């Protein structure tokens, strides 16, 4: 079987690539023009150049494949130009799914996010059945992923798209090169750069468990259904404290009132627009943190045979990877 994988240069996509290779899948990866392809030169992976915003390149990419794992997404919690994010996450996803339909692909796994799911009013972990709407989505990333998943589900219903949807929670682990917003949190906490926290919570999952969940969804998932690939629900204070303990630095002790941070976030975003770079804290991050983002993976466990390891293993693997990669070691030396 030959499968096309998008997003192989990203954090989750690279983990999915490792899993597919371990399963003996003949793999083709789609990369954007100008991407460093040296990581694939010593492998049997076929590399094709294209872009989610170029429909003709997507048709060429799916040609000759039987399966598709669409992991690629613009994952940023703040963007100076939201239109580019919608072009990739929404329009690009639709174009790729239509290309897969036209090429007659047999099976598709689409990587969505728990960001599109609703929350329970009683504060308990949410599942796939909690309703949500576009109006519930905070920020352009969530809105774009919501619209993309809705489009995929519509194509499953109306055009027979053979897609299974997976919704990872908050992946942590080795290989977060860019890093993602979550990876920056781990890196900064391990470097002692996060002395304070806000009262919120996240569902933490090891990135390799997410990758295994993709494979299980490919094998056993029901067409048109979505499956949460999650792990352990933890308050942010505990997450940061565990990371600090692994790295040997002081845990955060100061709980900040969320309202007091809004002017700081507004100023950080204004500065980023003026001078470039990323703001340290954003308005959307604060809005999202107003409720604990807790989920359960019961459906994936029951239907796919999905399992996840303790969150502590994800923390250990992530901190060690940042230390060995050098991006964290220098920061830690600066704390000595």
Report what the structure shows.
It is a single chain. This protein is α/β, with parallel strands linked by helices. The chain has a domain at about 1-175 and about 205-230 and about 295-310: NAD(P)-binding Rossmann-like Domain (Rossmann fold), CATH 3.40.50.720. The protein has helices at about 10-20, 55-60, 80-105, 140-160, 180-190, 205-220, 235-245, 260-275, 285-290, 300-305, 310-325, 330-335, and strands at about 1-5, 25-30, 45-50, 65-70, 105-110, 165-170, 170, 195, 200-205, 225-230, 230-235, 255. The chain has a seven-stranded parallel sheet with strand order 3-2-1-4-5-6-10, with helices on both faces. The longest helix is centred in the N-terminal third of the chain and has 22 residues, at about 80-105. The chain is globular.
Task: Please tell me what the overall shape is.
Answer: globular
Q: Structural class of the helix and strand makeup?
A: alpha/beta
What ranges have pLDDT less than 50 throughout 5 or more consecutive residues? 328-336
How are the strands of the biggest sheet laid out side by side?
3-2-1-4-5-6-10
Strand percentage, roughly?
A: 15-25%
Helix content range of the residues, please? 40-55%
Gyration radius (Cα, Å) is: 20 Å
Q: Using the coordinates shown, work out and report the CATH topology of the domain at 2-177 and 205-232 and 295-309.
A: Rossmann fold
Total helices: the number is: 12
Helix and strand sequence: EHEEHEHEHEEHEEHEEHEHHHHH
CATH superfamily of the domain at 2-177 and 205-232 and 295-309: NAD(P)-binding Rossmann-like Domain
Q: CATH top level of the domain at 2-177 and 205-232 and 295-309?
A: Alpha Beta
CATH architecture classification name of the domain at 2-177 and 205-232 and 295-309: 3-Layer(aba) Sandwich
Give the integer mean of the pLDDT values: 91
Q: What is the total tally of β strands?
A: 12
What's the story with the biggest beta sheet?
A: 7 strands, parallel
First CA to last CA: what distance? Answer: 52 Å
